[in-house]
Amino acid sequence: MNDTSPAAALAPLLTPQGWDLLGSLPPYDESQALSLSESLRAAGHDPALVAAALTQQRLRSRAAAKFGDFAQQMLFTPDGLEQATRLAVSAHHAARYAAAGVHRVADLGCGIGGDALALAGLGLDVLAVERDEPTAALATVNLMPFEDARVLCADALSVDLEAEGVDAVFADPARRAGGRRLTDPEQWSPRLSEVLALLGRVDAVGVKVAPGIDHALLPSDAHVQWVSVDGEVVEAGIWCGPLAPEGPGRSALVLSTGADGEPRARRLTDPACTDPSAAPEQLEPVSSTAQIGELLLEPDGAAIRAGLVAELARRTASRPVGTRIAYLTGDTLPEASLAPFLRCWRVREVLPLNLKALRARVRERGIGRLEIHKRGLPVSPDALRASLRLKGDGAETWVATRVGVRDEHDRGAVLVVEPVPAER
Ligand SMILES: C[S@@+](CC[C@H](N)C(=O)[O-])C[C@H]1O[C@@H](n2cnc3c(N)ncnc32)[C@H](O)[C@@H]1O
User: Fold this and answer.
1) What's the burial of 296, exposed, middle or buried (CB within 10 Å: 0-12/13-18/19+)?
2) How far is the CA of 155 from the centre of ligand 1 (A)?
3) What 3-state class would DSSP assign to 253?
4) What is the 47 CA–ligand 1 centroid distance (Å)?
5) Atom 16 in ligand 1: which residue has the minimum CA distance?
6) Strands 149-153 and 125-130
7) 237 lines ligand 1 (CB under 6 A)
8) 196/299 same-domain check
């Protein structure tokens, strides 16, 4: 039977002919892939090699979103790419190790080497450990430019850190099995508790974890930072010992691309929180729709996950619109330094969430385009949009949400809003 695994598909590339062919290919272009494949086979190349090389070029073109120009020199499997930390984020991980003054970092479960690359790129000595043999082979290729990086195909927890001269550990445990996401950190590989237990052997331990991790499972003496990239929450990092110069607590790191095309990084910390495992503070919401202010503020997902909504409310003189709802309302635009953490809307009207009345509005105003956001209500924006019979040239943005203190009879409200430009 043919072996169709990603590892078998890569094997032809890890030969001198395979490597030469891969190096000779142009950047991947879907519209040219078929004719390129035919011409390579007509030129006498083995069909399995041609298929492997074109698959690799396709993965490299996808990988450019995470690794930029480096992707063209790297090798990937679909899973390895999917799980790899993008360079914009791994650079921040690596900067913590460099600033802590550590020398040799063990990356325990290095995958195709996304994080190991960033660590090595900052001049750190890296021992990248991966138990899956084909993945370790790819990490070896990907780390080839770095003299001080070595890949070891082994179980992460079997490594003798002391004998290897390791003084810092990074781990990004595998959080999937059988195509399923595992939410329990004790089902990850390696387990979160096993990685954190290494703190007895090295002072500097950092772990990338799922952003939805329950705060109660976090070590109370670590600094935990949630990261978003262009509005998408991508991870939380648990930073221990010298990797946490900010001290125990929680923060959000918001990464984006500025209008000038340059990367931007903004941090927000909750000064009142010195124990990341503590439950986030909940503020009293407005009591009714009458108290909705001129503005609706939507915190970035990293700030929400980091439990910073109350901190943002304090700093913007605003209040949550409902119990445990991460929308804030007030009358003052946030100061410029908070802009990366808050999307701002001007509230034009507040309507009851009543389908008949909303349909009448759509008809009367000739609304053909409707953007719907929602929080805290069992409403599907797509289903709501479909049931409204949109028709006309008008356009509106609605935010469907629960308002006030939670109450079982609460049916929610629709806030008709307009965006306030981010660059003010
Ligand atoms: C989420 S991926 C790491 C991705 C990596 N940080 C990157 O940026 O490319 C986790 C990796 O850990 C490996 N792994 C899981 N358990 C392991 C163990 N006990 N020892 C070594 N590697 C392990 C998996 O094979 C997988 O490649």
Assistant:
1) buried
2) 10
3) strand
4) 31
5) 189
6) parallel
7) no
8) no
Does any ligand 1 atom lie closer than 6 A to the CB of residue 142? no
Give yes or no: residues 227 and 103 share one domain: yes
The DSSP-derived string for 148-187 is TEEEEES-GGG--TTTTT--EEEE--B-EETTEE---TTS
CATH number at residue 415: 3.30.2130
Q: How far is the centre of ligand 1, averaged over its atoms, from the C-alpha of 345 (Å)?
A: 41
Residue 275 Cβ < 6 Å to ligand 1: no
Closest residue by CA, ligand 1 atom 14: 109
Residue 74: which pLDDT band, with cuts at 50, 70 and 90? very high
CATH code: domain of residue 165: 3.40.50.150
Whether the predicted pLDDT of 420 surpasses 60: yes
121 Cβ closer than 6 Å to some ligand 1 atom = no
Confidence of residue 9 (pLDDT cuts 50, 70, 90): confident
Read off the pLDDT of residues 106-127 as tens digits, 9 standing for 90 and up: 999 999 999 999 999 999 999 9
Kindly state whether residues 262 and 293 are assigned to the same domain: no
Position 70 in a domain = no
Q: Tell whether 275 is covered by a domain.
A: no
The angle at the Cα of 114, spanning 112 to 115, to the nearest 5 degrees, equals 125
- How are beta strands 249-257 and 223-229 bridged, if at all? parallel
Note whether 165 and 229 are same-domain residues.
yes
Atom of ligand 1 nearest to the CA of 129: 21
Answer yes or no: is the C-beta of 109 below 6 A from any ligand 1 atom: yes
> What is the whole-number distance in angstroms between the Cα of residue 114 and the centre of ligand 1?
11
Domain count, the chain: 3
pLDDT score, position 360? 96
The percentage of the chain sitting over the pLDDT mark of 70, rounded to a whole number, equals: 97
Provide the domain limits for residue 214. 81-269
- 326 and 202 fall within a common domain: no
* 19 shares its domain with 100: no
Tell me: do 220 and 320 sit in the same domain.
no
Angle between helix 30-42 and helix 47-67 axes, rounded to 10 deg: 150
278 within domain boundaries: no
- Please tell me the predicted confidence (pLDDT) of residue 1: 52
Residue 45 lies in a domain: yes
Tell me: do 165 and 254 sit in the same domain.
yes
| Strand-pair partners of 352 | 413
| 307 C-alpha to ligand 1 centroid (Å) | 28
Which pLDDT band holds residue 258 (cuts at 50, 70, 90)? confident
